[in-house]
Amino acid sequence: MKFKSLTVGSVLALSMATMGQAERGSDGHVNVIYWQAPSILNPFLSAGTKDVEASSLVIEPLGRYDQDGALVPYLAQEIPTVANGGVSEDLTSITWKLKEGLKWSDGSPVTSADVKFTADYCMHPEGGCAQASFFDGVVSVETIDELTTKVTFNQPKPNPYGPFMGGQSPILQAAQFADCLGAKAPECTEANFNPIGTGPFRVTDFRPNDVIQMEANPHYRDAAKPAFATLTLKGGGDAAAAGRAVMETGEFDYAWNLQLAPDVIAKMAEGGKGKPIAAFGSLVERLEMNLTDPSPELDADTRSTRKAPHPILSDLKVRKALSMAIDRELLVEVGYGQAGRPTCNLVPAPKVFASPNTDCMTQDIEGAKALLEEAGWTDTDGDGVRDKDGKKLALLYQTSTNAVRQDFQALIKQWWSEIGVETELRNIDASVFFGGDPGSPDTFQKFYADVEMYANNFNGTDPQQYLAAYRCGGEPKPESQWQGENINRFCDPAYDALIDKLANTGDLNERGKIGIQMNEMLTKDTYTIVPLVDRGRVSAHSNTLGGVVLNTWDSELWNAADWYRTE
Q1: CA atoms within 13 A of residue 348's CA, in its CB half-sphere
Q2: CATH homologous superfamily, domain 8-272+543-565
Q3: Which of 204, 287, 321, 550 has the most CB atoms around its CB within 10 Å?
Q4: Which CATH number fits domain 281-535: 3.30.360.10, 1.25.40.10, 3.10.105.10, 3.40.720.10?
């Protein structure tokens, strides 16, 4: 695990010195476009990347991961370790110390009470915290003094950097969210849309699924930052329009997640107004298999648990056949080019955690057909669609609206038709699909379909928290406000035991072995998750925007305080 004691500002010290920044707000306005529009500015109520990253401009964690995956302090004085006394010798606790003099954007002091409150907020038994896995194994969070917070675990934690670390686990202001605990959390619209934060910007106007207006935080801890007085984050549209707005027209300064064919991006770059930037991390485009019956005839509670197993996908042979029919090399060629790699892994990086499994790499249509035959699915009426016990092998396959994803859907539907599967395609606006609205039937968490496709990743270079999301009981359900990332409703006591084993294993190689075993239980062994492409992160910034450092291990907007205008 890598640590850095430097401040984030020093990452770009040379560039900042060159530009000669004199005072906060001196560079005017900056425009950012996220074609998946943010729906909320509280990452504890949405696992959508768009919401987590937009929030990161305003609310911050105690520490982050930099562009190399190293841990760096943000609100904390330093990253706690055994060596500096911040982590106990027996690895059962971690003690964080806030920097002195920190203020919220309303001018009030930041204290350890805010840190403790954040834990209480996410761990509330009646609440639905999208980031609950960050607090896996936490027994208590206590304030030692105004700047010091101690987190105690139920067992030794060689990797204690779950709570309050990375963009998915920021600190909330206790005063603002005091009346928003438990089931009341999603009802606090003002707090969820306009959080008081410690980040470089504060919200002046938020229109969900549309646009956010921000201004420089007057109480930000560095008096010279941010360089921009105001910021607009425009949401919506599509990846192509976002790319053109930066690289061709110059209307925007930064465009996130250009999920476009490589030739399209190259053509846009010829516009001369901006340039694409790319890096690999742990982002995997994959198919999720629903292990429960999504039938609208069932009540919400039944649809959200394993009370009613999926009538088709509960059969491992069917899930495996669906995977075998896919040509991942062609998907990469069509969708990502050099910015993609075919993968059989949910966790493709770091290398120590990546399984050597390559079983899925070769498309095998005939093998998939044979497997379905073996499972009892045959075409009894000759219409090209297999059936069993009077039920057609028909699936609803959904994803968010995006040109590359719709290309993938079309190809996969064709391959599945070749093995006798009837597939209905559905695409949903990304702002809704990833929005986390507990009242919407169309979120990826509710998973009211048979198969769905998307990509996400984890903060930092250790997948412990990411893999812990599949613990039994972690499924989204009505009583959790439909939050939670175990969307497949996967449950295996043996897997849960590995979560605990990973949590108290210190040796990196042993951690890697356990992580690989967990990864393979979800993919190779059960085909609950069917990985497709290890995606490089591709974004773009204007030629006049300096200080940008693409980060695949945390929020892409992690160092927006250091951005500046070059001309």
Answers
A1: 25
A2: Periplasmic binding protein-like II (3.40.190.10)
A3: 321
A4: 3.10.105.10
CB 249 within 8 A of CB 127: no
CB atoms < 10 A from the CB of 438, how many?
18
Ordered alpha helix ranges (H), 156-305: 174-177, 189-193, 239-247, 262-269, 300-303
Compute how many other C-beta atoms are within 10 angstroms of the C-beta atom of residue 91: 18
Q: What is the DSSP letter of 218?
A: T
In this structure, are strands 93-97 and 148-153 parallel, antiparallel, or unpaired? antiparallel
CA distance 127 to 144: 26
Instruction: Count CB-CB contacts under 10 A for residue 207.
Output: 12
Q: Split the chain (567 residues) into runs of 10 and give each run's mean pLDDT.
A: 49 41 87 96 92 97 94 97 95 97 98 98 90 94 98 94 96 98 94 98 96 98 97 95 97 95 93 95 96 92 88 97 98 91 95 94 98 97 96 97 95 98 96 88 94 92 93 90 90 97 90 97 98 95 97 95 95
Placement of tokens 């986390």 in the chain: 436
